[in-house]
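> forwarded from #structure-qc
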């Protein structure tokens, strides 16, 4: 069985991905893919990860987990999603690193699902917006307090992903930039579901509803229905064209006013993030979905 671990990151899709996949349960189940409700496994797996780190896991853990989640017999692909798989928002950054617990927890996932092929899916986000959002969630008074007084410019996604590539080398990793999701949402859904690129899924344009006017969405969906054989690249070009004309004017980004968080810092981090994403594309075992 293929076990897909979608671990966030925090403050990205707010469970929209797993909800969209659950909404496609009829067609996915026919293809051998199970998307259990998160309530059936989030607490269970959290407790098991903590237990594994402290005292190890019993040999029958896999069987108990599948039974608790009621995974159908013959399932070929299992999708599990939780932004907290690698810890709480307070644990998301420590000692200048994103998700320092990721490697240990991924090894435990491989131990739990020792008969299966485990893969990681993860959305990245510009630290200029992510760090203050995490600090706010963790109830820190400033980003500096949240990250322990270090230098925000030194906190790189490539460091985390390089560590996973080096220390869990047999684990395939798929990542994408949260900022790109309106353009690549359908591809992310299909990659997680393991289905053909031509298969239409319910909700594959869900995010566009948040950033495109109602009139624009109506025209866009009509255009897509009239051109069912478009490739992913063609579909993205059409999305860009419609957004140029019908994008909502109101700002979509979360604005958090925290002490010491300046426009200059945000601009610097954005440049670093772009450069970091270029580096991520060269990390062994990491696939990056881009527009």
């Amino acid at each position: 069985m293929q076990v897909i671990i979608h671990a966030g990151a925090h403050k990205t899709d707010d469970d929209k991905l797993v909800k969209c996949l659950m909404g496609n349960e009829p067609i996915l189940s026919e293809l051998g893919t199970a998307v259990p409700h998160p309530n059936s496994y989030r607490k269970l797996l959290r407790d098991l990860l903590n237990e594994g780190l402290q005292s190890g896991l019993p040999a029958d853990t896999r069987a108990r987990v599948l039974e608790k989640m009621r995974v159908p017999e013959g399932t070929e692909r299992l999708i599990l999603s939780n932004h907290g798989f690698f810890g709480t928002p307070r644990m998301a950054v420590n000692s200048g690193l994103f998700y320092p617990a990721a490697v240990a927890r991924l090894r435990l996932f491989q131990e739990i699902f020792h008969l299966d092929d485990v893969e990681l899916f993860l959305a990245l986000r510009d630290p200029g917006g992510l760090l203050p959002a995490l600090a706010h969630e963790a109830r820190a008074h400033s980003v500096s307090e949240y990250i322990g007084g270090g230098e925000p410019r030194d906190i790189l996604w490539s460091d985390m992903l390089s560590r996973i590539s080096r220390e869990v080398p047999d684990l395939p990793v798929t990542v994408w930039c949260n900022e790109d999701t309106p353009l690549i949402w359908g591809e992310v859904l299909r990659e997680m579901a393991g289905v053909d690129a031509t298969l239409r899924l319910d909700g594959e344009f869900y995010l566009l509803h948040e950033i495109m006017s109602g009139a624009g969405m109506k025209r866009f969906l009509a255009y897509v229905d009239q051109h069912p054989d478009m490739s992913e690249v063609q579909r993205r070009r059409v999305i860009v064209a419609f957004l140029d004309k019908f994008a909502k004017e109101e700002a979509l980004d979360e604005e958090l006013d925290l002490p010491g968080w300046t426009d200059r810092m945000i601009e610097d981090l954005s440049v670093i993030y772009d450069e970091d994403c270029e580096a991520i594309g060269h990390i062994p075992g990491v696939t990056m979905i881009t527009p």
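QC bot note: The two ends are 29 Å apart (CA to CA). The longest helix spans residues 263-280.
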